[in-house]
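REVIEWER CHECKLIST
Item 1: Sequence provided? yes
Item 2: Single chain? yes
Item 3: Sequence as submitted:
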Amino acid sequence: MDLIQQIINQARNILACPVCSTHYDANQIRFRGFIDSTYIFQAICNKSHEPVAVTYLASLKKMDQPISAYFHTLSGEKITDELADEAEDMIERFDSDISVLWKS
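Item 4: Structure as written out by the authors:
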């Protein structure tokens, strides 16, 4: 079994649709590419609701913190105008060079 298939099999156990909470089948998880040592996958669920795309990143590098420190669980709820306004305000208040966020 190649590395991509191993990652997909592991992702099936971890990922669930944020709308219906169903775990994805292997054929619903697609390899989309890679950047450095990070592989990018996308999972799409279309079980009786609008398709939702979930992006899954698998890295071969050791992380400084547990994965939960980098990602937050999706609620599956629609984004309200209030949440969009809060995000816009947060982005507007950001007063640093965004490139520092990607430096290790």
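Item 5: Key structural point noted by reviewer: Residues 3-72 form one domain.
Item 6: Recommendation: ____
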